[in-house]
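Page 47, continued from p. 46.
Same chain as before, 310 aa.
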Amino acid sequence: MQVLANIAYAQIYPSKSIRLIVPFAPGGGNDTVARAVAQQMSQSLGQAVIVENKPGAGGALGADLAAKAPADGYTIFLGGVGSLAVNPQVMAKSPYDPIKDFSPIILLATAPSVVAVNATSQFKSIQEMTNFAKQNPGKLNYASNGNGSSAQIATVIYESMAGVDLTHVPYKGLAPALTDLLSGQVQVMFSSMVAIIPHIQAGRLRALAVTSSKRSALLPNTPTLSESGLQGYEAGSWYGLLVPAGTPDVIIQRLNLDASKALKQGTVKESLNAEGAEVIGGSPQDFSKYIRIEYERIGKLIKTGRLQIN
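Result:
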């Protein structure tokens, strides 16, 4: 009977607007990805998909809000490495379980980060920055879009591999962090490319390296961290859609179908590629497996002491 009820529910779904919770402030990579996909999904679903920014605690506040929402298909969550793989493992008492409290829909995209400094910075390369950091422990400030964010993870891995100690300055989103990097209030940021490349292209910021295993087509003259002396270094961001656990499977499949259609739209794909993000897609099962792998990878870093979130 429940199966028949779910099918009947799916036949009238959606009958009202859907909210897409983004756990970071407007203006960052998460926000850019969410709005590009939401616009196309709105057309396909026949109802508005409205982005709601709920920043705080490195994505944990938005994740908790989404996890406790009704499992009716009218609340979607944009999850990433911070909210799904880091925060639940480093918080003294996480208010949500990333595996039990959510049902994955689709992995939208992945994106490398870029190590950026102000255009007036004394650093012209990663090697120069590393040398300074070794000689001046704790004197180099780095910005991130929150504790447990991909930006902090990328920096912490750099610190561990380079043998340096930087001072973390967390913000409630990429936009305010970027503002202080542009004004010189902080010295460096490991940022997603989605929001920062325009400032690099405009000459306001300088790219020292990218965190991917190979150079980015958007910054072909910028070396990787691995090329810059940290062999084997790789880090980045990823973005995926989820719903509260208990959401009917027929709704999850419907949302997966419409999100997949959105990713195939030229405007969405070109928009994400132009910002440094690579479209992924796939099934809910594919994304579920990906989350578990990332959760275990981050967990090992935490347990071995290589990753300490302050």
